[in-house]
Amino acid sequence: MRHTAAVLAVLISTSIVLAGPITPPAGTVAPTYKTLTEVEPRIAVNATNTPGDSTQKFIINQPGSYYLTGNVTVSGISAIRISAPDVTLDLAGFQIVDELANNIGADRWGVVSNSTFANVSVVNGTIRGFSSGVLLNGARARVEGVRAESAEFTGIGVAANALVTDCSAFACATGIQFNASTVVRNCHVSANTGTGFQGLGVSAQLIDCTSRSNGGPGASLAANAIVRGCTFSINGGEGLTTAAGANVTNCISSSNSGSGFAGTDSCTYIACTGLGNNAYGIEVGNSALVQDCAVSGSATSAVRCATGCRIVGNRLDGVSGFPVVLIGGNDVHVERNTINGGTNAVSVSAGVDALIISNTCRGQSGTVFNLVLANHQVGPSVTATGTIASTSPFANFVR
After folding, report:
1. CA–CA distance, 313 with 132 (Å, rounded to integer)
2. Alpha helical stretches, state H, the chain
3. What distance in Å separates the CA atoms of residue 35 and residue 52, rounded to the nearest whole number?
4. What does pTM read for this prediction?
5. CA dist 331 to 94, 112, 191, 286, 325, Å?
């Protein structure tokens, strides 16, 4: 008993020593919990925070971060108008839907902002119906993780210097439309009745995107575009059309109703593949470069080019009745290509001063090099089997 009492006395005295003061500090005791604004600093889109009018269900008129709390459904009017700069709208995985899908010609948008308001972002959700799903007319817009469906005109549309990533557009007229210096990355467009990707301004970039089964071209881009790692297939026009100065690398264009790749002057195509397109594999204007590409199964020539082009290091398969490389201009350089089939390996239908050297040609049914006019430079043709007798580094090997 004495031992137990001693232990209890020690414990009691220890707890007394360790205990803090029980007198509260002077003044009013403040709450320690976080406010709702601190927990969720964004603003919910609803009739209280973002009231609309007769033509749009909600209007955001102050900069800030906004989010949906559920699906938004309208009938024949716009859903959300953004009338302020520096706005981020998170759809939070919800849908914005126009139930009056046959209201043809009436201007109505899923999410819209005009050109006055820059730095608007719309992310993470689905928009179905409307004239346009997302239409952000201010500079430096961002659209990320948005799926647009069944828009009468444009699924997703942005102005200059925008960023569109991880988006898709399905069954619209135009899939994704963008302007100058915009980057479109990792996006997919399909089953749109017109053009899949439409670039209206110079120096846009299309990177790691796919365009499939659209009624028009897979993509149509303005001057100085950069296109990298994209796939264009089964489209109703060309796979990819570009204006002057485009740079296209590591792309695939297959089974399109027009040419696989169609560019104008000063375009560059490197390491691209054209398969089974219903016109030319690669069709370019003046001063273009086609290098390290592979083309087969085209309905006509594998490559068609004009003045000042360089066709270098490609594997080109032709079809009966057409030249594999068709030249329609002066000063074209054709070097180190493997050229199979076709009526001619190279045909210069118009123009002079072509340079044709160091190619390997096989299986042509007609004249290997069909040079309509004079004044061309052609390496010697080596046709014999066995030991190569020619010492010329410019020899063309013909089998």
Report:
1. 44
2. 2-18, 36-39
3. 27
4. 0.88
5. 58, 50, 41, 10, 14
